[in-house]
Amino acid sequence: MSAPDTDIAIVGGGIVGLATALALSEKRSGAAITVLEKESDVARHQTGHNSGVIHAGIYYKPGSHKARLCVEGARLLTEFCDTHGIRYERCGKVIVATDAAEVPRLHALHERGIANGVPGLAIVDPAQLRQIEPHARAVQALHSPHTGIVDFGEVARAFATVLRERDVTIRTHARVQSIGVTGSRVHIETTSGSLTAHKLVNCAGLHADRVAVSMGLRPDVRIIPFRGEYYTLRPEQRVVRGLIYPVPDPTFPFLGVHFTRRIGGEVEAGPNAVLALAREGYRWTTVRPREVLGTIAYRGFWAMSARYWRTGLYEMYRSANKQAFLRALQRLVPDLRESDMGPGGAGVRAQAVAADGSMVDDFHIVETPNAVHVLNAPSPAATASLAIGRHIAGVVLANRA
Known about the structure:
By secondary structure, the protein is α+β, with helices and mostly antiparallel strands. The protein contains ten helices and 20 strands.
């Protein structure tokens, strides 16, 4: 049998796929590695549409992949930025309890963050909060001074530059059309031609479950796309210094609308979480009927809907009603006015949902004889990308054919 075209093929040129390629190129110098990206450049979807927060690791269950890889990944990320001259800023973050009922959950977050090794966490009172964020209001707040901001699109493009210097091939305009397995070979047909590989790493994000199915896997989750919509605060009315978050609802794996200062200086308010009508549905008007049918045919979707229907209806209402969006933001910053809010962008989150309707909270990585599939990599995946990449590389190389 002739040699494969590449040792390892990585499907997906987002930040996790690129970080995995970096780790593989370090651990197995000289290996032929090919990244397949369907768009014209890397980081065009989740990586390029996220809020740019370098998470410190506060929210995640101690011992989980998220907790371990976020704290490690944040360190690796800032080291990479220092080495490659990428601007980032530790602007800090406050999580605010706006009523007494939220205070126990705030303290639980404090304890969780300490257990995860997050540095500098402190509970602050209203007077101390005003020193950090003069316009925020709360009965208590949790201050995380080491939370930061960066442009993850810029980071991903820097990853790609390093990869090319290491002779890793990045093929753009290479949408995967089919995948077959024969013995120890993976045969991949793309819109830019075919190739064979020893191993495939599936980092396809919004399409990760589809790639898994195309290889004969019956994944235990399905990707359900949720759009997150933002407003942008007008420059003359920016009442936020850093990041202001609410205490999250422990039953729902989204953090609630919040304020995020971007590395370029602008401030975003959002996101909400509404069901998208396409896996890359950044607008309400983007509807792909086959993808919608695929979502509603999945029994996990209906189980999820039964569990969260009230929250889902409210998110849809808030999406259509600027005043409702404003009221949610005013719980954090009462001085905010509707005139302060201009139009913003949107992103789509690839949320893995199990057949029982539960939203998978941790990173979900599945290994098969010829492949490793990253089936759930939501926030803080961008922060944790270099650590996730090292983890995936270890799995690939421990069991390579």
